[in-house]
Amino acid sequence: MKKITLWLLLGVVVVSLGVLAAGGMRAWSLLAEEGDPQVLSRAIRDLEMGKEEVIQLDPVTYLMMSGDEGPLVRLLERRGWSFGGHVGEGLWLKKGKETLYARPRVFHQRYVIYELNRQP
């Protein structure tokens, strides 16, 4: 009886490790699709811990939690841009005669990546 319990427990552990490994590989591949996985995983950690509302991944790419684009708009307004409105799913901002477009792209269910048409 003890041998059967031991083998059953060992089987459950092996299957659990396999499932965790497969999930980890999927998560890593999602991160790798968006560039440097370490940079993106740190950015996600900072968002989840509430350290930042918007994280700049490169000069024209920003990561934030899904839902409201307000944090990105406020960040760009601090840089001198004024909110102009929505264009489809994206948004546009103005600074003098210059126009800046931000196009959102869903990254997982919890995050959105905004790509700007130029450096702000």
Q: Whole-Å distance between the termini?
A: 69 Å
Radius of gyration: 21 Å
Order of strands across the main sheet? 1-2-6-5-4-3
Q: How confident is the prediction overall: mean pLDDT? A: 82
Number of helices: 3
Q: Low-confidence parts lasting 5 or more residues at pLDDT below 50?
A: 19-32
| Oligomer status | single chain
Main beta-sheet annotation: 6 strands, antiparallel
Principal-axis shape: rod-shaped
Helix residue percentage: 40-55%
Number of strands: 6
Secondary-structure-based class equals alpha+beta
Strand content range: 25-35%
The helix/strand order is: HHEEHEEEE
Walk me through what this model shows.
- The chain has a domain at 52-120.
- β3 and β4 form a beta hairpin.
- It has three helices and six strands, in the order ααββαββββ.
- Strands 1-2-6-5-4-3 form a six-stranded antiparallel sheet, with helices on both faces.
- With 120 residues, it is α+β, with helices and mostly antiparallel strands.
- The longest helix is centred in the first third of the chain and has 32 residues, at 2-33.
- Helix content is 44%, strand content 32%.
- The chain has helices at residues 2-33, 37-48, 70-78, and strands at 54-58, 61-65, 82-87, 90-95, 98-107, 111-116.
- The protein starts with a helix and ends with a strand.
- The protein is rod-shaped.
